[in-house]
Design brief:
Layout lengths: L4 H6 L3 E7 L5 H18 L7 E12 L2 E12 L5 H4 L8 E3 L8 E8 L2 H11 L3 E9 L1 E3 L8 E4 L7 H23 L6 H9 L11 E11 L2 E9 L3 H14 L4 E11 L2 E2 L3 E2 L6 H31 L5 H9 L9 H10 L1
Parallel strand pairs: 1-13, 5-11
Antiparallel strand pairs: 1-5, 2-3, 4-5, 6-10, 6-11, 7-8, 9-10, 11-12
Family: Belongs to the pseudouridine synthase TruB family.
Organism: Geotrypetes seraphini (Gaboon caecilian)
Pfam family, one: TruB_N
Amino acid sequence: MPQFAPAAYRTLHGLFAVYKPPGVHWKLVRDGIETNLLKDLNSLEQPAPRQQVRFLPGISKGSNGKELTITATILPVLADHKLAKGPNYCHLKVGAGHVLDVRSSGVFVLGVGHGTKLLTDMREAHLTKEYTVHGLFGKATDDFSDTGKVIEKTTHDHITRDKLERILAVIQGSNHRALIMHSRIDLKSQEAYELAVEGLIRPMEKSPPIITKIRCLHFTPPEFTLEIQCLHETQQYLRKIIHEIGLELKSSAVCTRVRRTRDGIFTLSDALLRTHWDLQSIQDAIKHCMPKVEAELQKALALKDRMLGYDGGSTEQAEQLESVEHTEIITTGARSDQNREAT
């Protein structure tokens, strides 16, 4: 059944996710979706033109011959004709959530209409995101990706899955300590213990990138695949993690692919493929995701109030947080270089 354009426009308020392909800038994705929505809205049934009363002159035959008469007639307003004013919908407010760089792909959350305000609420909820990151041992580049300028080639025959997983455990442990520090809660309190058991500890304000979980999915040297769950990251930060892992294993590594599989409550199953970037599919996606979004925001607000109520972090912990710089992994590339020279 054809929709009425104003009624369809009123439903375009909320959040939805699309799948951003690699090699495409996120702004082109957003602009393309806006263009498709405007095209579909303008193709629907539009409101009828306004009517106006016009007094039209006419000639009638009377007793004295032809006489000039004025007749009241209802006519459409010509200014409302589509050839005069153009399409009814020329702009649509579409906002972007956590963006992906050109080389990355995966779940990309967008907000339309009043949903753009929900994007801010989702950012302030500090929800985790998950990535599948592919790496390749044996070389290093200037930008940590396989397409960058090669600056070093190394051997990798000595690397085993067990050695890789030990490095991943060190990374997760150091980042877990940083997570607790930036959450600003008293580690000695019962409340902190309860939050930790429930897995709810997370920063309630902006912090450096933090990895909450990292594990190896596939290991077929020289290729390997990691699953990373993190907060406040960038895709370039994840590529650098791959580089640092290579150094820690006394070799080198580059990142070949970064794919976001989850952004907060939005997963790959919620992401619309390019063939479904149309009005009907986006309406259905907004309707499907809205209950989950509202429930998650209420949960995040309750957690924030709970953590603020438990904000009993000691002065010593606060001073430690200010004085200690959060490192991306527990060891640095400089120390790794020294280890390689020693061997």
